[in-house]
Each structure stands twice: as C-alpha cells, then as structure tokens.
Write a structure and sequence with these properties.
The complex is a heterodimer.
Chain A (H helix, E strand, L loop, with lengths): L11 H6 L16 H12 L3 E5 L6 E2 L5 E2 L4 E2 L2 E5 L2 E12 L5 E13 L6 E5 L4 H5 L7 E6 L12 E6 L6
Chain B lengths: L10 E8 L10 H16 L8 E5 L3 H4 L4 H5 L10 E4 L5 H14 L5 E9 L8 H4 L15 H16 L3 H14 L14 H6 L2 E4 L1 E2 L8 E10 H7 L4 E10 L13 H14 L4 H4 L2 E3 L5 H10 L8 H6 L16 H4 L4 H17 L13 E8 L4 E9 L1
Parallel strand pairs in B: 2-3, 2-4, 9-10
Antiparallel strand pairs in B: 1-7, 1-8, 4-7, 5-6, 8-11, 10-11
Helix pairs in contact in B: 4-15, 7-12
The chains are: A mainly beta, B alpha/beta.
Chain lengths: 170, 393
C-alpha cells in the first residue's frame, strides 16, 4: 500500500474557518419509568431497595425487571433487600460528564447486594480514592446513605452514595 | 442456540477501500463513503453496475448529527436504485456490516455486494463525549451524570483485579499498536511511545489514562464481497469468509461479571464452528481484535479464546502479539493507532485481514505466513460481539 489515501484533514484552526452550518437540536424527553422501575423509584423514596424474585431460578433481580431475562418468564414477587453490599469494581473519575477536570475526584463503582447475589447497581462511593488505586476497595462492605426523607424525590439520587459499613454495624 | 454451519455458498472478499482517518475531515459523510466505496470497487476491478446490493454500517446517528444515516449515505455508497440496508450494533457495527454482506451473498440472493462503513465524529460540539451520554439507561444511570469512560474504567479495573493485571502490561498494547500504525497510510495517531508515556499521561478515570484510549476520528472504509462464481472469474487471490458469529448480552451490565466478555466467546464459537476451527490459538495466524482501549485488546483476546483467561497480558509482555510474533494482534495499528471512526474502524480491521491474507499489507505484513485471519468488534453497553474468520484462497 504505497499510495496516498483519499480525504482532506482539517486542523482545528482550519475547521474554525471552514464553511459550516450549525444547529442545536432541541430534543427534550420525559421517560415513563415503567412497571418495575416505578416501584423501585418509589421505594427509594421510602429509603428501601426492592428487587423482583424469579420464581423459576430464584434469582433476585436488581434493578428489578417484571420478566427474568434468563428464564424468560414473569418474575413473581417483590423482595426487599438490605441496602448493604460489596464493591465489585471501583474507579476514580477526575473528569466531569462533559470532559472538564473536576476539582475533587469522584469515586464510582458497582455494589453487589448481599441479599441478592449477582445483582448490583452502580453509584457513587464515599471512599478514599487511594483505596481504589490500591485495589483495597474491592470486596469492601458498603451501605447506602440516603438523602433526608423530605428531600427524596423518587430518583436514584435519593441514595447519596455508598460508604463503608462501620465495625459492629449490621 | 443452534446455527447451521454448513452454508453451501462460499463468499469472498475481493476488494477493500479506506479514506484517511483524521480528527476532522473536510468531506461530508457521503463524500467519505464515496471515496472508500470507489477505492474498494477499483481494487476488485468492478464498477457500480456490477453491484447487486449494498450494506451500509454506521454507529449512532447522533455522531454525524444526521438521522436516517443509512438512507443519507446511500448515494455516496452506491445504494440508490438497488436493495440497500443499514446495520447497527454500536461499536460492533464495523464487523457486523460485512457479516450482513456475507449473508446477502451466502443466501444466494446476490452475487456482488458493496459493504460501506462511515463515521464522522467531528460534527458533535464541543466534543462527541456529550453524545455518548445517551447510551446510558435514562431512568437509573443518566441521573448520576455519568461520563462514558466510567463504564470502561469499571470494566478495566474489574479485569485487572480479577486476573491481577498490571497497568504496565496493559500499556504495552498502546505502545505496540501506535507503533504498528506508523506503517499504515490512514493512521491518525501513529507514534513511537513508551510504557512510561502511557503511565504518565493524564489520568481521566483511574485506571484509564489519556494514552489508554483511541482518538475521536472521521473516516470511511469499504469492501466488495462476491459469490464464488464471480470470485473465480475476477481474481486469482480471493479471501474467503469462512465463519461469522455475533451475539448480544443483556444491557444489565451491573448484574454481570465484567472481567470476561462472554458474548465475544459466544460469537467466536459460532464463527469457529463454521470455519472448522478447533484450536483458535494454533489455527488463527493473524488477528484484528477490537481495541478502543488498550485493555480491550487483552479482554477480547481472552473472549476469542486466543489466550486463556488472564493470559493475554503475559502473551503481550512476551512479544507473542507483535507483528513478528507467533500470534500477531492488530498489525494495522488498530483503533489506538489508526483511529476510531466507530463503524469504519471495525471495517478497517476486516480490510486489514484481507490485505494480510493476500500479502498486500506492505510494511505491515506479518512475518509468519498468514492463511487464516480473524477480525472482531464489540459495542453497546459491553454487550455486542461480532466476529469474522477469513482464509486466503
């Protein structure tokens, strides 16, 4: 392949000067949360985590689904689980969703619920970033810390973050 | 899952085309598609009149900022006035597009199919990062204001934890691929860098650093896929598509073991069965493995059963995956070196295997004789696996 490929690269400055047409789409959405997640969000407002148990395989699904995708059957019942689990993976974000540097890094990870093996959610973790980098955070036992009841609105953000379970705590 | 692996009609790749891969291109998506499509037809020695059907691949419409991208790209892809369709499985699209091309021909419906993949990421302002927000679940994930890199960092760290992988070994992938890209005429980020450069680059979301990631890219790629009858007539060196496989996992990624891409294994097993491959590690001579992040090359090698679980970093450290190694991986330079115009990047990998198996890869030609090659891509919420196995004729 000793030939030149087609295409005209533009440097950033050239792109700024190039003939362009700009548009900002006004796309606004409102999503109905559905059968399963509406109840999940409602229970978050109550300070509880709820899952759906599949009567066929016995698995508790969190986030809850009205169907078990493994068995492809309706899940049968709602089950409360303790808001306690273990960190399966964790990372330290130094950038915002929009790519700017954050002043204070944010720790995020997946927490697998103790009462529902195989079912986890991802959320913020209130732990020292060094514990993530040293991988000591893996397997750490954590619990949900909730917003005050009056401030809850039926959102995943009703959980502020997960933080380590203290010694002697449930 | 049952698959008929005894498909009787053979399908050959007889031509490939590429544009430059760059951060910003003057050309419109249609113009990029046209350049790659024309080059592929020229390579095959065919004209648009010879083409029976067209398959177009492109990732989310939101990158180009144009809806109905299949229809939009059709005229630049030779798609008007003939059966034309667009396929999409996220980042897996680039390898899924020739899989769709394969079944167009293998089914007996068509003899000559033009396969075109295009992506322009530069229109998204100020950065395509914003567009990626829309892949997250709207109810439970977007309210946490996620950055796309979070999900990869979570997977990478889980992989590192589970198999005790060092960042130094992962960085070797970036070093290798960017160096390989020095010989690629389309390359955007070819460079001689060191492991230290990777480890000293900006930490974005630990453990992901700047040089662990492929760039934002505009570009297009194309292939011509034909029936055996046509292949015998027009070329002495067809490259046969011997196996194809694809699989999805659930979007419930927080309920899965992220250290191993099971869906890639499912896709690979399907392709290997079709190609009669029992021991991929021994039988695959060259592989183009999807590498939007350096750890992904290792993760995917294991899913493809080219390495045992946790073994890919060791093979990399030992030089096995270098261009002159026993199992060259990403001799093109991959997404890390050549660039990542999503769908076009996956198809670039298939084009690389085509050139490698024909002995036409020039400075990138692998040292060992290459008869059997593989290309793989992956996409969506770590859930789509697409695999194609090809053999020299």
């Amino acid at each position: 392949m000793g030939y030149k490929l087609p295409g005209t690269p533009l440097k950033r400055a050239e792109f700024e000067k190039a003939f362009k047409v700009e548009d900002k789409p006004e796309a606004k959405y409102a999503w109905a949360a559905g059968q399963a997640l509406s109840r999940f969000l409602e229970e978050l407002k109550n300070g509880r985590i709820v899952g759906r148990r599949c009567r066929n395989c016995g698995k508790i699904l969190i986030p809850p689904r009205m169907y078990c995708e493994h068995c492809f059957r309706p899940t049968g019942e709602w089950v409360y689980v303790r808001p306690v689990g273990r960190i399966v993976t964790a990372v330290v974000s130094y950038i915002a969703a929009t790519r700017e540097r954050l002043e204070k890094p944010e720790v995020i990870g997946i927490v697998e619920f103790e009462d529902a093996p195989g079912s986890g959610i991802f959320h913020r973790l209130n732990i020292d970033p060094e514990l993530v980098i040293s991988r000591k955070a893996f397997g750490m036992r954590v619990k949900a810390v909730w917003k005050p009841p009056k401030e809850r609105e039926g959102s995943i953000n009703d959980i502020l973050y997960f933080e380590p379970v203290g010694e002697g705590e449930g | 899952m049952k698959t008929n692996i005894y498909v009787k009609r053979r399908v050959a790749v007889v031509g490939a085309g590429l544009t430059l891969f760059r951060r910003r291109m003057l050309e419109t998506p249609k113009e990029l598609a046209w350049e790659a499509a024309k080059m592929a037809l020229d390579w095959a020695g065919l004209e648009l009149d010879d083409v029976d059907a067209v398959v177009i691949g492109s990732a989310p419409d939101a990158f180009d900022g144009v809806h109905m991208k299949g229809e939009y790209l059709a005229d630049g892809s030779g798609g008007w006035g003939r059966p034309t369709m667009r396929v999409y499985v996220g980042g897996g699209t680039g390898v899924f597009t020739p899989i769709a091309g394969w079944w167009h021909v293998a089914s007996g419906l068509f003899d000559v199919v033009l396969v075109v993949a295009e992506e322009k990421m530069s229109p998204a302002q100020p950065h395509p990062q914003f567009v990626f927000k829309h892949i997250w679940d709207p109810i439970l994930e977007r309210p946490l204001n996620p950055n796309l890199i979070w999900i990869f960092a979570m997977e990478m760290h889980r992989y590192m934890y589970k198999y005790n992988v060092r960042k130094e070994d992962i960085a070797l992938v970036s070093v290798k691929n960017k160096r390989n890209a020095l010989d690629h005429p389309a390359a955007q980020l070819a460079a001689k860098i060191t492991v230290e450069d990777v480890l000293n680059s900006e930490v974005l979301v630990y453990p992901v650093q700047r040089l662990d990631i492929s760039p934002v890219t505009d570009g297009a790629a194309a292939l011509v896929m034909v029936s055996e009858k046509v292949a015998r007539r027009i070329t002495d060196s067809p490259v046969w598509v011997e196996g194809v496989g694809w699989a999805l996992d659930s979007t419930q990624w927080t309920n899965r073991e992220l250290a191993y891409p099971k869906y890639v294994e499912v896709a690979a097993r399907m392709a290997y069965r079709m190609a009669g491959i029992n021991n991929p590690r021994k039988e695959i001579d060259v592989a183009e493995v999807y590498d939007p992040f350096d750890y992904k090359e290792l993760h995917h090698m294991e899913g493809l059963m080219l390495a045992r679980k946790g073994e890919a970093p060791i093979l990399t450290r030992e030089g096995v995956t270098e261009r002159d190694g026993d199992l060259p991986v990403n001799p093109s330079g991959g997404l890390l070196g050549v660039g990542n115009p999503i769908a076009a990047a996956g198809l670039m990998k298939v084009a690389e295997i085509f050139w490698q198996l024909r002995g036409e890869a020039g400075g990138r030609q692998v040292k060992k004789p290459a008869y059997t090659g593989l290309a793989q891509a992956w996409g969506d919420l770590m859930q789509a696996g697409t695999v194609i196995v090809m053999r020299a004729g």
